[in-house]
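Quick check before the chapter quiz. The format below is the same one you will see on the exam, so make sure you can read both the input and the output lines.
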Amino acid sequence: MNPIRPCRLRAGLTAIALASALLSPVTQAADTSPADQLQHWSAQAGAPGNAAKGEVFFNKRQGGEWSCASCHGTPPTTQGKHANTGKVIAPLAPAFNPKAFTDTAKVDKWFRRNCNDVLSRECSASEKADVLAYLNSLK
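Here is the expected output.
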């Protein structure tokens, strides 16, 4: 038996595995951006997000015990803490957290959960656009 043959086989299999991994579709968490999210919700609302309205909305208690700022802080440029559980929350403003608003599924999930906590309903498209305009304005 040729002693070189097993090494060539191993190298060939490694190359095939590497090529397969590189060519496989990879699900990326960063499938959107804060600007894309603002554009999406502004289009859904039929009007551009308004940062001033977003800031008021973010800081105002909406009929319940909490506001967005209750957990995310004012301004939401540093770590927050969940008002009920005490769990640490990464900064919400995209300029202070590069991962903020970069995963569409997470954006949808957290808007749904947080709006239900604060408003006892889902936020409207214009409310989401306004909050995103406010968050994107923080530098």
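If your answer matched, good. The beta strands are 80-81, 88-89.
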